[in-house]
Each structure stands twice: as structure tokens, then as C-alpha cells.
């Protein structure tokens, strides 16, 4: 059997790094079928590939899941946001704020957050960032640097898949995106992994126009892969003016609700094993 060199792209943009790992072995890792990997092998892989923190974490997640008894694919129990967390969101009146899952589900938001993400909330199924990025015809207009956002989204889903190989909702989401988006399929096949916890999003809102918004993410202790996402604007900039205008618009728009619709996240199906 011919062995192929596995390509891993670092998030720092330094180009591909090559190491003598077969694509078959990497596929076995992602499926949880590779066993008996020692610490020295892990270190060798990490050094040979010059892995950054995100890639190393993903590798460890894959190895952690390898060799364990394979449970049935499961639909995790309904993810909930504690009322105290929602009150924290609502208290941030000048800052768009969200609670997201690792799959990109928008679990909760404050009033200004729903106004900012109004195109995402237009999804009749449920607000999910990945589905919006790859399936909505409005995504390339809303995200002014769509190509970068698309790459970050796939890399985060890849990292989430490594954390839980048997999350049925995540598997279903990846299957849906792969079936409906050739662009997603191409990016998913690249196996890129990235931690995207801070930066600047360049948005074009349908009501207030362009916004350049620095963002920060903060992990929450309410279970795996829940985090707080906040956007702010630099003071005395056009983005701050646009955000203030958005807040005024949201205050008079009766269609903007304070949290995600209650039917967005259904409980586990009967007979399935919850988290």
C-alpha cells in the first residue's frame, strides 16, 4: 500500500508541514480506531508536524477517543443556558453577546446580539453559524471576509469532532453541510484545525452597513464546548456609530426577541444515550 504524506496547515499561515504519517492512519484516528499510541509517538508526531496548540489539542483528542469501546452514535441531551447566564447576557446592553456550542448552535443571545445576527436568525430551522456560513445565500454579504470565516468555521468543527467522535448532532450537521455545500466538502477534506478565540469580524449588516468588530470568546463551565462570544467596537469609530444605530433600531423592533426560540433545541430522542 502506498503511504501518503499527511499535510497539516498551521493557523499562523506558515504553510504546510509534512510528516511521514499515512492518510489511512489519520483516518483511523478520526474514526477512533487507532490504538496503542505511546507518549513518545505523540510527541514525535507533534514535533515532526510542528503542531500549534490547536492542532496538538486535536491530535490528543483523537488519541483519547481511540481504542475505547465504541458507543452508539448519540444525540446529546438538550443544551441549556442557566438563567443567571442569560441575565449576564441581558445586562450587556451595549455589547452583542451570545452563548454558542462547539457545533456553532446559537444557544442564547442578548437583545443587541439578536439584532446583530438577525440574518443568522432568519434560518427557519435553528440559528447555527456553520449552517449560515455555508448554506445561506446571504452569508457572503454578511461576512465581508467570507473566505476567512468559512475556513475558521470548518477548522472549529474539525476540532469539535475530535473532542467527541460520537456526537450524533455534530455528525448530522457535517453530513448535511457535506451533502449541500461543495465548498464545505473541499475545506473539510483539508483536515485543518484552529482555535479562533479572538480577532476582528468584518460584517455588513442589512440595516446599519459595515461594522469592524473585535471579538472575544470565553469558555463556560456548563458542559463541554459552550462558550460566551462578545463583540465590541473601537470607541469613536464608524463601527461604534453603526453599533449605536443598531441598538436604537433593535429597541424599536418588536421582531427582535431576547433569546433563541424555545424549539430550536430538542431533547434527546427516545432510546438514545444522552451526555
Q: Supply the helix-strand structural class.
A: alpha+beta
| Total helical elements | 12
Please tell me what the overall shape is: globular
Mean pLDDT: 76
- The amount of beta strand, in percent, is 15-25%
How many strands appear in the DSSP assignment? 7
Order of helices and strands: EEHHHHEEHHHHHHHEEEH
Order of strands, widest sheet:
4-3-7-6-5
Summarize the amount of helix as a percent range: 40-55%
Radius of gyration: 20 Å
Gap between N and C termini = 39 Å
User: How many strands, which pairing sense, and closed or not: the largest β-sheet?
Assistant: 5 strands, antiparallel
Low-pLDDT stretches? 1-20, 258-275
Secondary structure layout:
Layout: E1 6-9, E2 16-19, H1 23-30, H2 39-49, H3 53-65, H4 83-91, E3 97-101, E4 106-109, H5 111-116, H6 118-121, H7 129-135, H8 139-142, H9 146-163, H10 168-180, H11 182-188, E5 198-205, E6 209-219, E7 226-231, H12 238-251
Antiparallel strand pairs: 1-2, 3-4, 3-7, 5-6, 6-7
Protein architecture, described:
This protein has 275 residues and is α+β, with helices and mostly antiparallel strands. Helix content is 41%, strand content 15%. It is built from 12 helices and 7 strands. The protein has helices at residues 23-30, 39-49, 53-65, 83-91, 111-116, 118-121, 129-135, 139-142, 146-163, 168-180, 182-188, 238-251, and strands at 6-9, 16-19, 97-101, 106-109, 198-205, 209-219, 226-231. Strand 5 (198-205) and strand 6 form a beta hairpin. The longest helix has 18 residues, at 146-163. The protein is globular, with a radius of gyration of 20 Å.
Amino acid at each position: 500500500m502506498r503511504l501518503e504524506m499527511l499535510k497539516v496547515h498551521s493557523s499562523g499561515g506558515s504553510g504546510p508541514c509534512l510528516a511521514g504519517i499515512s492518510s489511512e492512519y489519520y483516518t483511523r484516528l478520526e474514526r477512533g480506531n487507532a490504538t496503542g499510541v505511546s507518549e513518545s509517538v505523540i510527541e514525535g508526531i507533534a514535533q515532526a508536524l510542528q503542531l500549534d496548540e490547536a492542532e496538538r489539542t486535536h491530535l490528543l483528542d483523537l488519541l483519547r477517543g481511540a481504542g475505547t469501546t465504541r458507543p452508539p452514535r448519540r444525540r446529546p441531551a438538550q443544551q441549556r443556558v442557566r438563567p443567571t447566564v442569560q441575565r449576564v447576557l441581558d445586562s450587556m446592553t451595549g455589547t452583542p453577546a451570545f452563548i454558542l456550542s462547539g457545533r456553532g448552535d446559537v444557544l442564547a443571545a442578548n437583545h443587541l446580539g439578536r439584532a446583530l445576527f438577525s440574518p443568522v436568525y432568519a434560518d427557519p430551522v435553528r440559528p447555527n453559524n456553520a449552517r449560515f456560513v455555508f448554506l445561506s445565500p446571504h452569508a457572503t454579504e454578511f461576512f465581508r471576509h467570507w473566505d476567512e470565516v468559512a475556513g475558521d468555521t470548518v477548522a472549529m468543527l474539525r476540532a469539535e469532532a475530535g473532542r467527541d467522535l460520537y456526537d450524533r448532532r455534530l455528525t448530522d450537521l457535517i453530513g448535511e453541510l457535506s451533502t449541500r455545500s461543495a465548498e464545505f466538502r473541499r475545506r473539510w477534506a483539508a483536515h485543518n484545525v484552529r482555535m479562533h478565540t479572538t480577532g476582528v469580524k468584518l460584517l455588513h449588516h442589512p440595516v446599519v452597513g459595515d461594522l469592524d468588530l473585535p471579538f472575544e470568546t470565553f469558555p463556560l463551565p456548563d458542559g463541554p464546548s459552550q462558550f460566551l462570544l462578545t463583540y465590541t467596537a473601537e470607541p469613536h469609530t464608524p463601527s461604534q456609530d453603526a453599533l449605536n444605530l443598531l441598538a436604537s433600531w433593535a429597541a424599536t423592533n418588536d421582531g427582535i426577541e431576547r433569546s433563541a426560540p424555545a424549539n430550536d433545541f430538542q431533547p434527546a430522542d427516545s432510546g438514545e444515550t444522552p451526555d
